[in-house]
Design goal:
Layout lengths: L3 H50 L3 H7 L6 H6 L6 H16 L9 H30 L9 H4 L4 H19 L4 H8 L2 H10 L6 H9 L1 H11 L4 H23 L3 H7 L4 H5 L3 H22 L4 H19 L6 H9 L1 H38 L1
Length: 372
């Protein structure tokens, strides 16, 4: 039988067990918070180490340039060519989609648009830095930009921007009049995009409209008009693609952005980022399929779309939005998406002619017995 003393012992034991459990839970919470902070800090260190130790060819090229022009090359982000590629690929898609069956894209147009992408991306970065020079000084990643550290003044940046836009205009004037007006109409988007993060959580959408204008312009540069049935789905696919990669990119700065009141889809989507990006990826793939159907594409194109789908699925499923290093790597990998689709359009267009020839030969083979 239990006595009063035995009940006291049981009560003390239960009370001790409860206290021990609470202490263990608090210890686990503190340990998890510490490990998260430690991993987050180490990921930032990894990003900085990679940027310092693994300089790419473009960065080395900028560093080897004369000291007087280095700030201007950095202002137009010549040391970070990923943005130029992301701007060029939609142009390449449009030019390749406009190629005649059995033909490769016009190499002159590809070179012209490649140069234009380099110049206009630089102009866009210059405009962005002119708008954001006060904000950039408060963000760790952008603290050393030329307009922030004083290497370039606002007057010098404005003159440099004028030079870039003049070269861009010369390139644009090489196209037909339809394309000249179409290209000039995108300048408004280039100017207002940097302001959007102050007013809306969807600046990535505006960037998508801006960066993928080349899908329409590239097609019109070949045909003198835009085939909406082919180009509009291609354009919308590019817009969704931009929202995906720039949301990933924005997750690198979300802590600073929250403190400064800067808006982005990364902040809006937050922990639901993967769900949102999956939706945009599905829309992108559906739009690419529709564009291919409207353009009578062949199996290499759809194989490329399948590869793009696989890449996006892997990218989104393995994304760690709290790891700046992972976000940076995922963002840069999107250049492969543009390249894969570009190759798919070219190969699919080349196969159109061979399929057409096969159908002609088949028709002749049937007609011969009928004539004889």
């Amino acid at each position: 039988m239990f006595t009063r003393r035995s009940f006291k012992h049981v009560y003390k034991y239960l009370d001790y067990s409860r206290k021990r459990e609470v202490i263990l839970q608090n210890h686990i919470k503190v340990s998890s918070i510490w490990s998260y902070d430690k991993s987050f800090a180490s990921s930032i260190v990894k990003v900085n180490e990679k940027r310092q130790m693994k300089q790419r060819f473009a960065a080395k090229l900028v560093d080897s340039a004369p000291k007087q022009i280095q700030p201007y090359l950095k202002l137009m982000r010549l040391d970070k060519p990923i943005g130029t590629w992301l701007l060029f690929w939609p142009c390449g898609w449009g030019i390749a989609s406009a190629a005649a069956p059995g033909c490769v894209p016009d190499p002159y147009m590809l070179a012209l648009f490649g140069t234009g992408a380099l110049i206009m991306r630089g102009a866009g970065c210059t405009i962005n830095d002119m708008w954001d020079r006060d904000i950039d000084g408060k963000v760790e990643r952008t603290r050393e930009r030329p307009l922030v550290n004083g290497e370039v003044t606002m007057k010098q940046a404005l003159m440099f921007l004028g030079g870039q836009l003049s070269i861009g205009l010369i390139i644009l004037l090489q196209l037909n009049w339809y394309s000249i007006f179409l290209g000039a109409s995108s300048l408004g988007l280039v100017v207002i995009y940097p302001l959007m993060k102050r007013f809306t959580y969807w600046p990535q959408l505006v960037l998508g409209f801006t960066f993928n204008w080349g899908a329409l312009l590239g097609y019109s540069a070949i045909h003198g008009n835009v085939n909406l049935a082919t180009c509009l789905p291609l354009y919308m696919a590019g817009v969704c693609w931009t929202i995906i990669y720039d949301t990933i990119y924005a997750h690198q700065d979300k802590t600073d952005d929250l403190q400064l009141g800067i808006k982005s889809t990364a902040i809006k989507f937050d922990q639901d980022t993967k769900v949102w990006l999956s939706g945009f990826a599905s829309t992108m793939v559906g739009s690419l399929i529709l564009s291919g159907v409207m353009n009578n594409q062949t199996w290499p194109y759809y194989t490329a779309v399948a590869l793009v789908t696989t890449h996006l699925a892997s990218q989104i499923s393995t994304l760690n939005i709290d790891d700046p290093s992972d976000c940076s790597n995922k963002f840069i990998s999107n250049s492969k998406v543009g390249f894969i689709l570009f190759c798919g359009i070219i190969l699919g267009t080349l196969l159109k002619q061979s399929d057409k020839n096969k159908s002609k030969e088949y028709t002749k083979a049937i007609r011969v017995p009928l004539v004889s």
